[in-house]
Amino acid sequence: MQLTLADLAEQIGARLTQGGDIIIQGVNTLTAAGPSDVSFLANDSYRRHLANTQAAAVIVAPEQAEDVAGVALLADNPYLAFARATQLFDNRPHVAAGVHPTAVVAGTAQLADDVRVAANVVIGEHVYIGAGSEIGPGTVIGDHCTLGQNCRLAANVTLYHDVALGDRCTVHSGAVLGADGFGFAPDAGRWHKIAQLGGVRIGNDVEIGANTCVDRGALEDTVIADGAILDNLIQVAHNVSIGEGTAIAACAGIAGSTQVGAGCTLAGGVGLSGHLSIADGTHVAAMALISKSIDKPGVYASGTAQMPLKEWRRSATRFRQLDSMAKRLQQLEKRQEGEA
């Protein structure tokens, strides 16, 4: 891919200061960029690299234009402009056109004419796949699944039966959508399986990371709304609902029937207990355990910050003493009140 700087500026919504005929061939960091690359500054801590960068041009906010020694691309949101630039130079390989001869496609499946299906794919009965979608090698799509337009399933994705994806969804390798939820009834020391009769419903423009699992609902569906993004290695249990535009980082776990609102962020390793409700606009810090519903938007955390091991052991001992200390304090307060 080659673009003139003027064309690049137009496509990413930036204003060019000069040098519109310069040819751009890639995107890179300030320190690694060469004379045919465009770079960006979205974090002030990297401002010191502006003076020495070899980039052909740098995407910056208008108030930073004077700090750029060479050509500046002015954008109100430099990080968004950078994201748009990366899309122009996306170098991932595409699945070859058509259906690979080793793919197994059920006779009742309906595929739009331009759907791309790679080697060793299995597509079940009564599946529908919309125009422009791409199915990576080794992927399995179970019966009665639907995919909207321009979806991309990477290699070795598994969709169990009755999973529905909207338009422009991306699912990365190893993800499993629609496996049974963890539902069992105890009786006399044994566990009896509860059939998981719901499905999985995923909206438009959703991205699901590698090795993430979204379980099917027990009775109603597990739902992920439009624009939500899920990182790698996330567990979404049965009947969970994730709101529009919510972002969840790696290794988070959401227990059954919890409702996460719109515009939330869950940082890495967050755990949500089951049957909770999380308000729109809630942000949870890394490794936090949320065991009660949150009805007021804000930033929430739990646990303790890192400290030297000896100090942590002393603190842990104090934690165990808090209950008895609180009781003694109450007794002292009552005694003082009586003496008063």
Structural notes for this entry:
The chain has 340 residues and is an alpha/beta fold. It has a ten-stranded parallel β-sheet with strand order 8-11-14-17-20-25-28-31-34-37, with no helix packed on it. Strands 10-13-16-19-24-27-30-33-36-38 form a ten-stranded parallel β-sheet, with no helix packed on it. The radius of gyration is 26 Å and the shape is flat. The relative contact order is 0.06.
Shape: flat
Distance between the termini: 84 Å
Q: Flag low-confidence runs.
A: none
Beta content comes to 25-35%
The CATH topology of the largest domain is what? UDP N-Acetylglucosamine Acyltransferase, domain 1
Number of domains: 3
Q: What is the radius of gyration?
A: 26 Å
Major beta sheet, strand line-up = 8-11-14-17-20-25-28-31-34-37
Label the CATH architecture of the largest domain: 3 Solenoid
Total DSSP E strands = 38
Helix content: 10-25%
Top keywords for this entry?
flat, alpha/beta, UDP N-Acetylglucosamine Acyltransferase, domain 1, ten-stranded parallel β-sheet, 15% helix, 26% strand, 38 strands, Udp-n-acetylmuramoylalanyl-d-glutamate--2,6- Diaminopimelate Ligase, Chain: A, domain 1, 3 helices, 3 domains, 340 residues
List the helices and strands and how they pair.
Blueprint lengths: L2 E2 H8 L2 E2 L6 E2 L1 E2 L9 E4 L16 E4 L10 E4 L3 H11 L15 E2 L4 E2 L4 E2 L4 E2 L4 E2 L4 E2 L4 E2 L4 E2 L4 E2 L4 E2 L3 E3 L4 E2 L4 E2 L6 E4 L2 E4 L6 E3 L4 E2 L4 E2 L7 E3 L4 E2 L4 E2 L4 E2 L4 E2 L4 E2 L4 E2 L4 E2 L4 E2 L4 E2 L4 E2 L4 E2 L8 E2 L8 H31 L1
Parallel strand pairs: 4-5, 5-6, 6-7, 8-11, 9-12, 10-13, 11-14, 12-15, 13-16, 14-17, 15-18, 16-19, 17-20, 18-23, 19-24, 20-25, 23-26, 24-27, 25-28, 26-29, 27-30, 28-31, 29-32, 30-33, 31-34, 32-35, 33-36, 34-37, 36-38
Antiparallel strand pairs: 1-3, 2-7, 21-22
